[in-house]
Structures are given as structure tokens and as C-alpha cells.
Amino acid sequence: MGTVGMLKAAGAGAGDEVIVPAFGNVEVAEAVTLAGATPVFADIDPATYCLDPAAVEAAVTSGTVAVIAVHRFGRPADIARLHGVGQRHGLLVLEQGESEAPYDEIAQRRERAAYLDARLNGVWTPDGGDGHTYQHYVVRVPGNGRPDRDAFARAVRSKGVDCRVPVKTPVHRMPAFRRDVCLPETERAADETLALPVDVSLTKREMQRIVSACNALGGLLQPAF
């Protein structure tokens, strides 16, 4: 059963609210709308890029019936704490995961992630806690906002590194779901994050190229204090 079906089966409909993340795929908010309910956006944990349980609890109203937690980049959401919020307020907690790879592929991605963790400077490397599978290796470019991250990405691509911006526009900025809501961690993550490759097909030379390209630039884009 898909997300829409689960929401309808739980009785979610007109007048109900479902708390979702704005950092990531618009399909989650669309599923809430298709079920007849209203998506309410809560902020993310800056380490996991998943819903922050404290932000979720702060967003609960008398109309809230459910929460949809999305596991992001191979780093799982804090489901235990989210279920705690659900139990306190009588909410359904749904999970949306990302397709997983075989264990040997995950092990190789973790090896590549460890290689980058140990060598990258000038960017903030990802938090590797709670069984991170590194479906995406997402760093932050600690500049002064989007122009710095985008300039960094263009420069790294010019060195032959296939990097990409994982979330270009948070859902609460999109015309169909625009909300006047304060989501500082979501906004910051959208402006600073960059996904670097950790594909199992990468050679040692290609991994070295990623490090050298990033390290040659990272120190130039530090925030001004």
C-alpha cells in the first residue's frame, strides 16, 4: 500500500493535517494532498537531513493526524523519538525509505565515504551515525549561502567530478505548496549541500581526483565572521 492509501486507510482527509519534511521530494506533500489532507512542514535535523522530532512536536495542532518521516541519503530518521511524539499526541507515524543496495555494495560505499571523511577539508563531511549507508555522500560548503555552494560545484565539475545539488528547492518554496513558515535548517541545507560521488565503480584515481578538486577550493569559501 502506498502513502496515499495508508493515509486514507488511517482516515486522513479534509480538515486533517499531516506533518512532512520540506527538504526533499515533493511527492510526499503531493501524497498528503491526494489523500485530501493538508501537508504541514516541519524543520529537519541538520545532521541527518530528516525530520527533527522536536520540530515535529512543535508543529502538532488539534488537526494533526499523522507524520511522514523520510529517510534521507541513506541516513535514517530518528524513528524512536518520532514514535514517541506520535504516542503522546495520538498520531500515525509513517516511514518512507529509499531503495537499498546489497550489503556488499553498501560496504564499498562506506569504504569510499571513510576515504573522503579522512581527506576532505574545506567542506563539512556528513554525519555517519546510525548505520548510514551513503546512498548519497552529502557535504556542506561552508560559504555565505547558495552562490558559494553553486560556484564551488561548478569549479569541482570543471575538474571532472560529477557532483550535484541534492535539493534545489525545498517544497515550502514551491508555488503549489508555498507556506509562510520558518524552517531555518531546511533553508540552510538547501543552500549549502552538495552530493559527491561514492559509486562502487569509482577507481582510486577518481577518488583522489574528488579530494584534490574539493581541497583546492574549500579553503577559499569559508564564511566571514
How would you portray this structure in words?
It is a single chain. By secondary structure, the chain is α/β, with parallel strands linked by helices. It has 2 domains: 3-96, Aspartate Aminotransferase, domain 2 (3-Layer(aba) Sandwich); 103-221, Aspartate Aminotransferase, domain 1, CATH 3.90.1150. It is 39% helix and 13% strand. It has 8 helices and 6 strands; from the N terminus they run αβαβαβαβαβααβα. It has helices spanning 3-9, 27-34, 53-59, 79-89, 103-119, 146-158, 184-192, 204-218, and strands at residues 17-21, 38-42, 64-70, 92-96, 137-140, 193-196. Strands 2-1-3-4 form a 4-stranded parallel β-sheet, sandwiched between helices. Strands 5-6 form a two-stranded antiparallel sheet. The longest helix is centred in the middle third of the chain and has 17 residues, at 103-119. It is elongated and about 55 Å long. 38% of the residues are buried. GO terms for molecular function: pyridoxal phosphate binding; transaminase activity. Keywords: Aminotransferase, Pyridoxal phosphate, Transferase. It holds the Pfam family DegT_DnrJ_EryC1.
